[in-house]
Amino acid sequence: xxxxxxxxQLRAWFAERLPVDVxxxxxxxxxxxxxxxxxxxIPATESVKEFRERTREQRIEVAREAESLYRRKVAWxxxxxxxxxxxxxxxxxxxxxxxxxxxxxxxxxxxxGVARSRADALAWCVRLVGRNTDTWxxxxxxxxxxxxxxxxxxxxxSGGTDSRKSGSE
Length: 169
Fold this sequence. Notes:
The protein is α+β, with helices and mostly antiparallel strands. It has helices spanning about 5-15, 50-70, 100-110, 120-130, 135-155; strands at about 25-30, 35-40, 75-80, 85. Strands 1-2-3-4 form a four-stranded mixed beta sheet. The model is unreliable at about 160-169 (pLDDT under 50).
């Protein structure tokens, strides 16, 4: 997870490098450990397919530079009206251990036809939580930024001397 300050720096980096005719406006630049996702508004007169074709070379050039600098893949998306479409984005496997009651939730979603597998059911649950707890997750991310700032203001524990190695030998 990146801090709010890092997120703003990342957004500024992309805003500076994207040619003015790629997006009408930059909606969001989000990042995690594996991927940076850039989403912008396209002209109302242009389809997603037309946008992808028209901007492909420009986006590839910016993505190569970003991938080299940030060591993350770059995914692109567009907002047309109220609909957001992502393309060339990652699906990253995540390992977890679940107790029986938790597995039963996933199995119920599979049996009910909501998901094809436990993995799909888990992804469905994560999307549902993300949609329904957006305010809480935002507050949690903000509090993590505060914790990071407090840590940075604390004592330097990495460069201290070891009291066991005093010169009394």
